[in-house]
Amino acid sequence: FENCVFENLSVADDDANVIQIGGIQYPQQQNHFSFKNSLFSNISSHDNMILIGSRNNPKIDITNCTFAGNQGDAYTLMVNGEVNIVNSIFDNDTPYQIKINPMDGNPNEHTNLTIDHSLVKDGIDGILPYPVPGNTINFLPSSMDANPHFSGGFDIHDPLFYSLSEFSPCIDSGTRDISDLNLPPYDLAGNWRIWNGRIDMGCFELGAPPVGNDDPSVPAVPAFSLTAYPNPFSAFTNIRAEIPARGDRGAEAINTARIVIYNLRGQMVRAMELDPGVRQQVLTWDGRDSRNQRCSNGIYFLNLVVDGRSIISKKVTLIR
């Protein structure tokens, strides 16, 4: 599940889950459940709320998700298996934020819950354990118990109600290394997932501009364009940028323009200046950073930045 919204759900039955995600498996199969950039909000239940799990010790990854504004008399999320919660926020009006699924006391079903770079209301006390041999809860020091300081607003049913305000401790508090998280380049609102070199907790990134669309089926704004060829490349790629020139009808005056290159971690690799008075320009990038060091293989994002604003983005792949 990626960039999903689960909201405004209610169940009055005391013996039913509002959301239940599981799997049917053969005896030796281990299920894998993955949630990224997703929001669970304004869900209400008298008892059970969200259940994710199955038998055979499933693997569950919850990354940059926000569980907030949910109300119930028991818990928000119940899980079992190998559970990794990273860069996520739990701030709900429930006695417990997370519960370990007892799995009917089956001694062959164990749960190892790890919470890393996340905010959980009440901290470790907000987790209801099932203390049997083999079960572990690792609430790492990188995680916290704090007020997430959401942006709020007049409409709690607006997903952006749960975006971060400038006072949030979740800003730039995500894990530094996201190379193994396989996150999309955008957050739930379609803005850059990594901004200013560090990722935020939760499904929204504060202050990040929208990700440009380089799909050829969707034409860019006629006044601006950005292409790269060859792509993928090994030795170099030609970056062709088009911006409104001085004197173009209806065009505003441009003072600065440049191509800024980021890696998947959101770190700026290199910046190349453009002449703001020239409509079409071609620059060559040789796959090196600002220190003239060879960049590693992978995906990079070219951003056309005009007067400090990101206008268009283009993804390129470096393969040596």
| Helix and strand element order | EEEEEEEEEEEEEEEEEEEEEE
Q: Main β-sheet: number of strands, strand sense, barrel status? A: 5 strands, parallel
How big a fraction of the residues is strand?
A: 35-45%
**Overall radius of gyration:** 23 Å
Note the overall shape.
Answer: elongated
Number of domains: 2
Number of continuous helical runs: 0
The first-to-last residue Cα distance is 32 Å
Secondary structure class reads mainly beta
- Average pLDDT across residues? 87
Low-confidence stretches: 215-222
Give the helix level as a range of percent: under 10%
Strand elements, count: 22
Across the major sheet, the strand order is: 1-4-7-10-13
Descriptive overview:
With 320 residues, this protein is mostly beta strands. It folds into two domains: 5-162; 225-318, Immunoglobulin-like (Sandwich). It contains no helices and 22 strands. The protein has strands at residues 5-11, 19-21, 32-36, 39-45, 50-52, 59-63, 66-72, 75-79, 82-86, 89-93, 96-100, 112-116, 119-120, 127-128, 136-139, 225-229, 237-242, 257-262, 268-274, 280-285, 298-306, 309-318. The strands form five sheets. It has a five-stranded parallel β-sheet, with no helix packed on it. It has a five-stranded parallel β-sheet with strand order 2-5-8-11-14, with no helix packed on it. β18 and β19 (268-274) form a beta hairpin. The two termini are 32 Å apart. The relative contact order is 0.11. The model is unreliable at 215-222 (pLDDT under 50).
